[in-house]
C-alpha cells in the first residue's frame, strides 16, 4: 500500500485541492534550476515565477508551502552535505509513475535554469550535466517494471542528487567578484 503522507503526495494533494495542475516534481525542479542558475533565494521573485507556473495566484497554504520548499532548497544548496532531496514519488510508487515524475522534474529544472541563466561561459562538465538533464527529461512512462529498470532509475536518482550542486557551485563561482590581487 503506497505511503500517503510522503512530502510528494502531500504536495500533490495540496496543489490538486487548490486547483493547480502542475506537478510537484516540475515545480521543485523549476525552483532548483532557477536557484542553481543564480536567482538567489528571495521569496518574492520565486513566488512570482511560481504564480506563473501555477497559472494563478496561490492560496496562503500553497504560498507557505512554496516558501518552505524554497527554504529547503536554499539549505541544501548552501550546506556542506553535498546532496539534494528531490521531490518525487516514493519508491513504493509504480516505476512508470516515478519515471514520469523524474522527467517532469528535469523539464522543470531546465526551464528554471534557462529562464534565469545569465551570460557566462560554463565548463564542459556543467554543459554535460545540462545535456544529461535534457536526455533524462525525455524519459516517458515506457519504462517497464523490472530489476534492471529499477537499478537504472536509482542510478539516475543518485546522479540528480549531486548534479545540481555542480551547476550551483559553478554559477555562484562565476558571479563572485574577482579576487583582489595579493601583495607579495
TrEMBL record:
Pfam families tied to this protein: UPF0149
Alphabetized SUPFAM superfamilies for the sequence: YgfB-like
UniProt-listed Gene3D superfamilies: YgfB uncharacterised protein family UPF0149, PF03695
Segments passing through the bilayer: none
Family the UniProt entry places it in: Belongs to the UPF0149 family.
Entry-linked NCBIfam families: PRK02166.1
Family matches, as PANTHER family: UPF0149 PROTEIN YGFB
Name under which the protein is recorded: UPF0149 protein FJD38_09385
Organism listed in the record: Pseudomonas saxonica
Amino acid at each position: 500500500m503506497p505511503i500517503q503522507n510522503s512530502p510528494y503526495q502531500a504536495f500533490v494533494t495540496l496543489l490538486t485541492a487548490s486547483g493547480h495542475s502542475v506537478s510537484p516534481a516540475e515545480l521543485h525542479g523549476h525552483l532548483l534550476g532557477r536557484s542553481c542558475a543564480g536567482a538567489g533565494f528571495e521569496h518574492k521573485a520565486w513566488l512570482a515565477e511560481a504564480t506563473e507556473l501555477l497559472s494563478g495566484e496561490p492560496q496562503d497554504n500553497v504560498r507557505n508551502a512554496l516558501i518552505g520548499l524554497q527554504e529547503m532548497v536554499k539549505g541544501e544548496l548552501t550546506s556542506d552535505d553535498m546532496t539534494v532531496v528531490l521531490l518525487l514519488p516514493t519508491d513504493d510508487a509504480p516505476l512508470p509513475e516515478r519515471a514520469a515524475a523524474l522527467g517532469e522534474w528535469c523539464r522543470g529544472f531546465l526551464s528554471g535554469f534557462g529562464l534565469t541563466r545569465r551570460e557566462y561561459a560554463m565548463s564542459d562538465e556543467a554543459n554535460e550535466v545540462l545535456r544529461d538533464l535534457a536526455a533524462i527529461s525525455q524519459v516517458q512512462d515506457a519504462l517497464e517494471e523490472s530489476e534492471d529498470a529499477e537499478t537504472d532509475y536509482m542510478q539516475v536518482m543518485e546522479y540528480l542528487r549531486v548534479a545540481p550542486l555542480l551547476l550551483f557551485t559553478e554559477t555562484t563561482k562565476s558571479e563572485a567578484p574577482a579576487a583582489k590581487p595579493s601583495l607579495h
